[in-house]
């Protein structure tokens, strides 16, 4: 059966470059201008403080994680559009990392790109990054929220809870996962944290789960230079299989944008607000999935380094709205943290004695791009459950047999319906010959 077409270059590359350095996707489709009245905001040309060495390492290494995540997800997903948030996935897994130990900790740390950093350094870097990103541009609304939901009766380590609340500013709630109200509360949290753009992250909640860790990000702001809606017009968009579809294309001419090109690709950067945040669009000469397959931080750095201000004859980009929902277990396992999903997982820093594994990592994303800007939201949910049980629990009526294994002779057979009854007395009936 032929593979479905992968139509939209922009759809597939809108969020792969979400958190790489400080060039982030985001913004809004309902603002009237960068500051609400159409005036251009003051440009932001420097960070408010210098990054620590650990923060710099986390940002650089997270770039590799984000690029590998989108490349593997795009190659494995038959849907035409794949939209992911590396930041949201990294932060949710970063919280979970605080419960890991031994080889599980090493595997997760390596997959996230944090080799060589201690847990304290990783946590401090996440905390610093949250503080830095949220308040970076007054003309862009960017929020990060973290939450931990524990099933009633689950005895998790207080030290784990302390690290997650202190470093990730996470809220902690203990609820009965068997109650429908708990599922409503979890979905309600996601709805609030994304301003209603992701109203539901779970359709059901397994009562056997022990914990759910969640990260939500929301970004809302306008283009620094908006597109004129009067210039938007239908145009053919060529899918990967050569077929075309009509889409509304936003157009700009005789304006200045950062443009660049490299080996088989062209790129443009579209700033938001004061320019600290921007969308980078990379259009390849060939297949986009093949282009990003082997990309790493150096390739992304080459894209950014190629960008120079140029006046364009024409810049044409489609309007689009995409919702994406994906379970990331297979991708993350292929990236090196498969042990975290197995019965051999070691989460003894989360609960004394461990016996836990990651049941699922699920991410839902939303993105809308129009003439005024972009709205983007993501929620990553990590479910923690007991390790897969191998064995048998005879806690209901059962049959048994004692046999001689070589000959197959049955010596005793029985059905046990109540192990507490030692002698039930004789059954009904009477003896005697008739």
Automatic annotation (TrEMBL):
SMART domains in the cross-refs: SERPIN
Signal peptide limits: 1-26
Pfam families linked to this entry: Serpin
Stated name of the protein: Serpin family protein
Domain Serpin: 67-419
Keywords assigned by UniProt, alphabetized: Signal
Family membership noted in the UniProt record: Belongs to the serpin family.
Signal keyword on record: yes
CDD domains xrefs: serpin_miropin-like
InterPro entries to which the protein is assigned, alphabetical: Serpin_CS, Serpin_dom, Serpin_fam, Serpin_sf, Serpin_sf_1, Serpin_sf_2
Domain of life: Bacteria
The keyword Ubl conjugation appears for this protein: no
């Amino acid at each position: 059966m032929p593979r479905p077409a992968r139509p939209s270059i922009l759809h597939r590359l809108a969020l792969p470059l979400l958190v790489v350095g400080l060039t982030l996707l985001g913004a809004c489709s309902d603002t009237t201008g960068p500051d609400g009245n159409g005036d251009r905001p003051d440009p932001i040309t420097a960070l408010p403080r210098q990054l620590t060495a650990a923060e710099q390492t986390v940002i650089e290494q997270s770039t590799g994680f984000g690029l590998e995540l989108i490349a593997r997800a795009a190659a494995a997903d038959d849907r035409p559009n794949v939209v992911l948030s590396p930041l949201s996935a990294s932060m949710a897994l970063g919280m979970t990392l605080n419960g890991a130990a031994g080889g599980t900790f090493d595997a997760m740390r390596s997959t996230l790109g944090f080799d060589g950093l201690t847990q304290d350094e990783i946590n401090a870097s996440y905390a610093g990054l949250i503080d830095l990103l949220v308040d970076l541009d007054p003309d862009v609304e960017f929020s990060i929220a973290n939450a931990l939901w524990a099933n009633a009766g689950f005895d998790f380590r207080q030290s784990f809870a302390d690290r997650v609340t202190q470093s990730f500013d996470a809220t902690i709630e203990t609820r009965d996962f068997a109650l429908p109200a708990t599922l409503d509360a979890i979905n309600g949290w996601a709805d609030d944290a994304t301003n209603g753009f992701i109203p539901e992250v779970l359709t059901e909640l397994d009562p056997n789960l022990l914990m759910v860790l969640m990260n939500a990000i929301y970004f809302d702001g306008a283009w620094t230079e908006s597109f004129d809606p009067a210039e938007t017009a239908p145009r053919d968009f060529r899918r990967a299989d050569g077929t075309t579809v009509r889409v509304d294309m936003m157009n700009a001419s005789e304006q200045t944008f950062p443009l660049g090109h490299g080996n088989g690709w062209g790129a443009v950067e579209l700033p938001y607000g004061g320019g600290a945040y921007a969308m980078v669009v990379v259009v390849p000469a060939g297949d986009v999935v093949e282009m990003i397959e082997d990309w790493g931080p150096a390739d992304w750095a080459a894209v950014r380094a190629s960008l120079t201000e140029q006046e364009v004859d024409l810049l044409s980009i489609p309007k689009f709205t995409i919702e994406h929902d994906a379970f990331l277990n297979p991708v993350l396992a292929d990236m090196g943290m498969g042990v975290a999903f197995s019965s051999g997982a070691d989460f003894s820093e989360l609960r004394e004695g461990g016996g836990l594994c990651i049941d699922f990592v699920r991410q839902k994303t939303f993105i809308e791009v129009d003439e005024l800007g972009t709205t983007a939201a993501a929620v990553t949910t990590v479910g923690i459950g007991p390790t897969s049980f191998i064995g048998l629990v005879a806690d209901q009526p059962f049959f048994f047999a004692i046999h001689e294994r070589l000959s197959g002779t049955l010596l005793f057979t029985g059905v046990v319906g109540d192990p507490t009854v030692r002698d039930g007395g004789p059954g009904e009936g009477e003896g005697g010959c008739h």
